[in-house]
Design brief:
With 212 residues, the protein is mainly alpha-helical. The protein is 79% helix and 0% strand. It has 8 helices and no strands. The chain is globular, with a radius of gyration of 17 Å.
Length: 212
């Protein structure tokens, strides 16, 4: 029942995102819809939702792959918003553009992601193919969060939901990694609450991004 409720919730969020995409027609919003669709698929696989995962040999790897595609879609969405805003407003006095701050922000997120992987995953007694797959996903996740933070500096104000959403996504997946590779959270109920308390806002907040 809990799995079905989670999937219904994520499906509802996708419907809302599609409504905004149709209503406003901004390119970046369509990529957010794509990211939410692959996130829904990833959630179904990781939860071993039988209609989806029945014939999948390794639902965890497949789920991580689905989320990897979602991160790529988010990266494109944030990139499109950063490219679109300067073209829309040109050089209006006081405007800030995410592409100008990306070189300073992105390395910080990627370095943090790599350090977390070394501390949490590399030292764990798990197969190396799983560790390498997790490393690839960790880099994509960090790049996504860096792009989200950079996209927050688009326009004449700070679009905080983008930075907070990207960061919460890293925290949510970090909790999952810590639980899987280090056994950091023993209480399963507390673990589920921690994951979903960070994951749901991480998926909702990008919908409040810039209107470029």
């Amino acid at each position: 029942m809990a799995t079905r409720l989670k999937l219904i919730g994520m499906g509802s969020l996708l419907v809302i995102a599609l409504f905004f995409a149709f209503a406003l027609g901004h390119a970046w919003q369509w990529f957010v819809c794509l990211a939410l669709a692959f996130s829904w698929l990833g959630d179904a696989l990781l939860a071993h939702f039988d209609p989806i995962s029945r014939h999948v040999p390794d639902p965890f790897i497949a789920g991580m792959g689905s989320f990897a595609v979602a991160q790529i879609a988010y990266i494109i969405a944030f990139w499109r918003s950063m490219v679109g805003m300067p073209l829309l407003h040109m050089r209006v006095p006081g405007m800030r553009f995410g592409m100008e701050v990306l070189p300073a922000i992105l390395p910080v997120y990627v370095l943090f992601g790599l350090l977390f992987w070394v501390w949490t995953v590399m030292r764990a007694e798990k197969p190396w193919d799983l560790k390498i797959a997790t490393l690839v996903y960790c880099i994509l996740l960090s790049v996504m969060a860096g792009f989200a933070a950079s996209a927050a500096f688009v326009g004449n104000g700070f679009v905080w939901p983008l930075m907070v959403g990207g960061t919460l996504f890293m925290i949510s997946d970090g909790i999952i990694a810590a639980h899987l590779f280090r056994g950091s959270i023993q209480n399963e109920k507390r673990y589920e609450i921690a994951v979903w308390a960070t994951y749901l806002p991480a998926q909702i907040l990008p919908l409040l991004g810039p209107s470029s």
